[in-house]
Amino acid sequence: MSRTVLITGNSSGLGKGLTEAYLEKGFEVYGMSRRGYASSKHKLNDIRCDLTDYESVPLALETLLMGISHLDVAILNAGILGKMQDMADTSLEEIRRVMEANVWSNKVLLDWLLKSGIRIDQIVLISSGAAVNGNRGWGAYALSKATLNMLTQLYAHEFPHSHLVALAPGLVDTAMQDVLCDPVQVDDGQFPSVKKLRAARGTENMPSATVAGQMIADLIPSLKQLPSGSFTDVRTLMQGQ
């Protein structure tokens, strides 16, 4: 029987790295993203969808997963950074924009999956260390990821036959780092937490999306050892190995 995985936000960054990793493992991959994953690999099934267009998400899922009765893994990865700025300078509109992409789109996905009748062994929601660190400047993003952690915990009660985890992937060299590591866009004097990111970029402490995708894909089966609804960090898991 073919192993199956659903990955959102799979056209770039970590989502693309995860797609590559699961294709290499021989999985049938079902991807959702705004731009689409450019590949002719026969085990990749892809659909373009803006996940913040909530009315279009159910139809996209129905089209993508038509005839599917079982998913080994669903990885809800899509998300945005938002502006690095002090909370006092962050408008409610900016917070709403980030929450729509990072939280409420995932609620729409989870609601559809819950009602679909598809048996799902594992659901992994990609969170962030920002959810618990509370560093200056991460405002809307940190709020969204903290909310995502609680969303995972709450939905764990409603998916009794699936195992849910919110997973912080650690430092990954993606387009997000292009913004965070640019001194013109982000002042590390005002937001000192980005100094750690800039020091890590280009080292093994910040792997490429391809390397991180392979590492996370290898780790995901072991997440079942945690209570469903948990939040964990890849770095904590790696230290325990």
TrEMBL record:
Keywords: Oxidoreductase
UniProt xrefs under Gene3D superfamilies: NAD(P)-binding Rossmann-like Domain
Molecular function in Gene Ontology: oxidoreductase activity, acting on NAD(P)H, oxygen as acceptor
Similarity comment text for this entry: Belongs to the short-chain dehydrogenases/reductases (SDR) family.
UniProt-recorded name of the protein: SDR family NAD(P)-dependent oxidoreductase
Taxon lineage: Bacteria, Pseudomonadati, Pseudomonadota, Gammaproteobacteria, Chromatiales
